[in-house]
Amino acid sequence: MRADNPAKFELELATSHKLINEGTLEYTLRKGVTFHNGKPFTGADVKATFEYSSQKRKSAWYPGPADVEVVDDYTVRLHTKKHGYPASAYVLLASFLPIMSRTAMR
Q1: Going from the N-terminus, what domains does the chain have, and what CATH number goes with each?
Q2: Residues 105, 99: contact at Cβ < 8 Å?
Q3: Which residues contact 70 (CB under 8 A, 6 or more apart)?
Q4: Residue 66 CB neighbours (<10 A)
Q5: Which of 62, 57, 101 is nearest to 78 (CA)?
């Protein structure tokens, strides 16, 4: 979201997101994005960040754990059904979650 128009939801690291069903949210990631060290940004980084942040280092604003499926380098699916809450809860959460390189969380 932007300060000049907080009602407009603007994606930066993804090009789109869609709710597949109540427990599955899919993100299509932006191609050509790199980390500061030149390594490419991929679905594996999103998986590592979301699973680490929602399962190992929980914060009060997380609705619960999320399991992340890497469909391909630029498509990920968040699964929440088995954890008992809707995947749509991650739409706004993802807007302020910094994505870390998967190698940074080892």
Answers
A1: 14-105 (3.90.76.10)
A2: no
A3: 42, 43, 44, 46, 47, 76
A4: 23
A5: 62
pTM of the model: 0.85
Give CA angle at 48 (43, 51), nearest 5°. 115
Q: Which residue has the tokens 């942040």?
A: 53
State the Cα angle at 70 between 73 and 55, rounded to 5°.
130
Query: How far is 21 from 11, CA to CA, in rounded Å?
Result: 20
pLDDT tens column, 56-72: 776 666 778 889 999 99
Closest CA to 89 of 23, 31, 28: 23
Measured between alpha carbons, how far is residue 70 from residues 8, 10, 55, 83 in Å? 27, 23, 17, 19
Token digits of residue 30 = 């932006």
